[in-house]
Specification:
About 75% of the residues lie in helices and about 0% in strands. It has 16 helices and no strands. The longest helix is centred in the C-terminal third of the chain and has 47 residues.
């Protein structure tokens, strides 16, 4: 029997606490389901764009007769569909749910939260269509046309305030590590987004300040929005599923503050060699290297929390995804610190190595952990088991193999590409031709990921439709269901 089954959906043995958690779940159910449905829809849309990008990278003439399917537009549509569509929607669902549960505070006025989510996705849809029709801004991570961004900003303000209000009216004085990360991210993201929009799009700064702001924003979206939300989810799920506390509260404190202090500077290392003040580049390099501290601390904390329970980790669908993501966080962060060194940057800069590094962080780390969060959250919201353990296995293995193939192909191929570009005796056209086999391997990895995403979506909607009529009759009644599909 797995740890998930021993615990049931609520870890506390107190009937009063379990009833309270059930009421909290009921209060956020409709909004969380909307955000998860939206996230999965954007995941599938982003997957289609990703396949087009992967194929066009080594076969430029593919679908070239359609102007809206040119490489630049499709890649930008893919990036924003995944970052603002899949990633942000799933953060709103899982992050607010975890915050509400830890604060033991039901979500009030959830109708406004639902409306804000609708307008967030309307704004994103308008932005994606704007990109495809050619209204792209040409600024990486900020490609959405300026006429769509105010709607996104207002919608986020209405969504993010719910997490802040839940924390404000929490029960008890203890603050859990997951709450630190979620609350900080809810403040960090609007700060990043508004400053970048103002300084690059609305009232552009002059000269190199724009490029500095662009990389400050792009790098920190991963480090101060995706990363803290994924770490908060891991810190919440590992103790919940295993039924033991996190290894060290004090290591959690160190990891949080080291991330908050150092990551904000780290993105500037991507401008090594550019017309940027040397002191600023050096500060970015130092901050990137110092990121080893929170990464090692978090890695120790996670490892020591599961030590001796590896069989339980493997049996739990939730922890299978979470541990894969946690290991990926350690690897991608250490690689990122190495990439900040000038001697390494000389090889990896302007190559596919950087693209592979980005996918390593956003997908292998963040997305895999959020998959685990959905597998844990949904049975507690719908009070039903996942209908198919086979689809869960298919989802995990297809995505794990797919992203591994992609990372290896892009980073090995990118490293070779960088070495060849630094060799003046090798013609540039030959360098381009030598990257094609690696880019084809990336397309193969996209097929694996597509299979995994379809399995995930099919399992989710199967569960959702099956729960539709039953949920209306149950109301807040607490059922003793486990995390469906855990007995594998």
């Amino acid at each position: 029997m797995s740890a998930d089954q021993k615990q049931g959906p609520y870890s506390s043995t107190s009937e009063a606490v379990r009833l309270e958690l059930s009421q909290i779940d009921a209060s956020i159910r409709s909004a969380a389901l909307f955000f998860v449905i939206s996230a999965i829809a954007w995941l599938l849309i982003g997957t289609v764009f990703a396949l087009l990008v992967a194929v066009k990278a080594h076969q430029p003439n593919f679908a070239s007769t359609f102007e809206f399917l040119t490489f630049g537009r499709v890649r930008s549509a893919h990036l924003n569909a995944m970052a603002l569509g899949w990633a942000s929607n799933i953060i709103f669902a899982v992050g607010l749910w975890i915050m509400a549960r830890l604060c033991r505070a039901p979500i009030n006025h959830k109708g406004i939260l639902f409306i804000a989510g609708v307008f967030w996705n309307i704004g994103l849809t308008v932005g994606i269509f704007g990109i495809l029709r050619g209204d792209i801004t040409s600024v990486e991570w900020l490609e959405i046309p300026k006429y769509a961004t105010p709607l996104l900003a207002i919608s986020y303000a209405l969504i993010g305030v719910w997490g802040v209000m839940a924390f404000r009216f929490r029960k008890g004085d203890h603050v859990y590590v997951s709450q630190w990360y979620i609350l900080a991210a809810l403040f960090w993201f609007p700060w990043l987004y508004v400053v970048a929009q103002v300084m690059i799009i609305w009232f552009p700064a002059r000269g190199v300040v724009q490029s500095v702001t662009n990389w400050w924003f792009a790098h920190n979206v991963l480090g101060l929005w995706f990363t803290p939300m994924a770490l908060a989810t891991a810190y919440y799920l590992i103790p919940k599923v295993l039924g033991r506390p996190i290894y060290s509260y004090y290591l959690s404190v160190l990891g949080f503050w080291a991330l908050a202090i150092f990551y904000n500077w780290a993105g500037i290392h991507h401008l090594i060699g550019g017309p940027i003040p040397v002191w600023l580049i050096s500060a970015g390099i130092v901050a990137s290297v110092m990121m080893v501290i929170p990464v090692v601390v978090v890695g120790i904390n996670h490892h020591m929390s599961v030590v001796g329970l590896y069989k339980e980790v493997w049996r739990s669908p939730t922890l299978r995804f979470v541990v894969f993501g946690a290991i990926s966080y350690t690897l991608v962060s250490l690689i990122g610190s190495a990439m900040a060194l000038r001697t390494v940057s000389e090889i990896t800069h302007f190559t596919h190595f950087t693209v592979g590094h980005a996918h390593h962080g956003v997908y292998a780390f963040f997305t895999m952990i959020m998959f685990g969060g959905v597998y844990y959250m949904m049975p507690r919201l719908l009070k039903r088991e996942w209908p198919s353990s086979f689809l869960i296995k298919l989802h995990f293995w297809a995505c794990a193999l797919g992203i591994t193939i992609m990372i290896v192909a892009l980073q090995v191929g990118g490293w070779i590409q960088g070495l060849e570009m630094n060799n003046a005796e090798i013609p540039f056209l030959e360098v381009v031709q030598n990257t094609i086999p690696w880019l084809k391997a990336r397309s193969v990895s996209g097929l694996f990921l597509t299979v995994g995403h379809i399995a995930f979506a099919a399992n989710f909607f199967w569960m959702l439709f099956a729960a539709g009529t039953v949920l209306a009759k149950q109301g807040p009644t607490l059922l003793g269901s486990n995390e469906g599909g855990t007995a594998q």
